[in-house]
Amino acid sequence: MSAVFVATALDRYTVVILKNLTDSIAGVTIDINTVWFWGIGYALIVFVARNCWRASGFAGMRWFMGLQATAYQALYEYLSLHSKNYFNNRFAGSLANKISNAVDGVQSLFEKTLWQFIPLTIGLVWYTVFAASSDLRLGIVLALWSVIFIGVNAWLAKKMEVYSVRVADSASILKGRIVDSLSNMSLVHEHAYVAGEQDYIKTFISNQRTAGLSHWKFSEWVLVTNGVMVFLFMLTMIGSAIVLFQSHVVSVGVVIMVIVIVAQVSHDFFFIGQEIRDAARNFGQAHEGLQEILKEHLIVDSLTSKSLKVEKGEITFESIHFDYENSPVFRNFSLLIPAAQKVGIVGRSGAGKTTFVSLLLRHFDIQQGAIKIDGQDIKEITLASLRKAIAFVPQDTSLFHRTIEENIRYSNPKATEEAVKNAAKLAQAHAFISKLPKGYETLVGERGVKLSGGQRQRIAIARAFLKNAPILVLDEATSSLDSESEHAIQQSLVELMKNRTVIAIAHRLSTLKRMDRIVMIAEGKIVEDGAPEKLLAKKDGLFKAMWEHQVQGFILDE
Questions:
Q1: Are 346 and 555 contacting, i.e. CB atoms less than 8 angstroms apart?
Q2: pLDDT at 56
Q3: How far is CA 111 from CA 33, 73, 148, 398, in A?
């Protein structure tokens, strides 16, 4: 910052040197030594000023790169703490773009402030002082025009903010839609809907184009306005200097100084509209990104949260009430799952099975009641300790575009290579992994696209083995496996479920028949609860009816 102040002061002082140089040449008697003094002085001042600017560049380089790194890290950390529902309602590509917009916008604003707006402001102060020292009236004229320019352009910048936010928002939406479309391109091709998808994306491109044109049109009017004001400023300043020269109030050197000041300030004033337009766009980018990212976290640890201590693994739902988007899901719902019991959760689509698991993992908070693990309310324990105590195998397995080993190790980063391979063997994954060209170092592609659905699920099961958590949640954990693979992995699941509290959402009888207990849910209520044999013996029972409609090991949803 100090280098910017010094460089600006030296740059502006050159007009005083030019005034003195001109007066020393235009005088009645010429002192050549004085001419040389001011001539060499001008060159030296310019040289020193340029090096001060470079010093500010070297210093700013480290500061701005540090700011960028810190901003990326801080925004990602804050974003990663949002709830599952937050991410479900937003495009990943759009969120990534918002982080980039926020960081780039803030950095550009700081850069423009440091190297554009601060020098402009300091320079105007110095020019006003130099003009006033020659004649107070010249200083007053320059000061008044400076206030007018800055005031008008600040007002225009405020007006431009609306257009800037609209441009940034439309750009984020467009990029999010493009990422969503590209990630599902195989689906587009399979349905021969390439032309339709192109038209769909074209709509968002059109919206972005419209927003961009509106922003650009307004910025051009800003430049037109500044052009008119610059013209009037030049006439006023130069005219005032000439009048004062005619009246023998100021010297020819002062006229030259005023002309140089007018030339420099006119350039700054004319392009200040361009700079403000860019600054408004940067502000719009930063505002649009930060507004979306910095929303309040809905699921957070309380100040008194403690780490969960699981001694048995008993789970209780005590008279819970839960609404999702103003629609009731559970009303006065209660359930006790004793430690080490294996419970199958059954019900038709929309019955609340997946929500049941989401509440246990605290992806959502209930409105009333309590969910407890070994008597500890999950709202009073840390999210990290809660989720570390639960091994979750989802139906839709998500993998990072990293190696197979990294994906398995994700549940236990400190696990040894031997432990990773052992988990893969237990999940019946080691055989297919070993056949891959790079084995465990094979990259799986975005979301695991290079692997089959069954292979992805086996990796997810391997994660669960490696995590070795006291509570196990299976959400259709074998749904993507063929019959042969499923048969092989069922024995592994039996091993995985030993001495653990298990909650299994399943349609396949091969999974349900291994449960100690079946809980059937309909419309957020428990309609049947008991051992599989007991429910199958129940005349006209709902579970029995679903069982009897089985086809090749599945229970139909309809």
A1: yes
A2: 82
A3: 42, 20, 24, 40
| In the block, residue with structure tokens 């693994």 | 313
Tokens linked to 10? 């030296």
* Backbone dihedral angles phi then psi of residue 470, each to the nearest 5 degrees: -75, -20
Q: What pLDDT, on a 0 to 100 scale, did the predictor assign at position 529?
A: 92
- Whether 332 contacts 321, CB under 8 Å: yes
How does DSSP classify residue 297?
P
Which residue, among 167, 169, 206, has the nearest Cα to 198 in the 3D structure? 206
Residue 51: its H or E element: helix 32-80
DSSP 504: E
Token reading at 554: 């599945």
- Report in angstroms the alpha-carbon separations of 317 from 332, 506, 512: 9, 20, 22
- DSSP per residue over 234-287, as a string? HHHHHHHHHHHHHTTSS-HHHHHHHHHHHHHHHHHHHHHHHHHHHHHHHHHHHH
228: which residues sit within 8 A by CB, 6+ positions away?
A: none
Rounded Cα distance between 119 and 7, Å, is: 9
Tokens for 245, please give them.
């020269």
Task: State residue 472's pLDDT score.
Answer: 93
For the sheet with 501-505, list strands across it: 390-393, 471-475, 501-505, 342-346, 517-522, 525-530
Q: Tell me the three state secondary structure of residue 154.
A: helix
* The pLDDT value given to residue 479: 63
DSSP helix, strand, coil percent of the chain (3-state; round to 5): 65, 10, 25
Tell me what pLDDT residue 452 has: 83
Domains of the chain as residue ranges with CATH: 2-293 (1.20.1560.10), 311-389+500-558 (3.40.50.300)
CB atoms within 10 A of CB 107: 17
Alpha-carbon span 447 to 401, nearest angstrom:
6
- Planar angle of CA 190, 192, 196, nearest 5 degrees: 125
SS3 of 346, please? Answer: strand
Note the pLDDT of residue 91. Answer: 76
The residue written with tokens 């001694």 in the block is 311
CA 460 to chain centroid, in Å, comes to: 26
pLDDT < 50: residue spans in the chain: 551-558
Gap between the Cα atoms of 81 and 70, Å rounded: 17
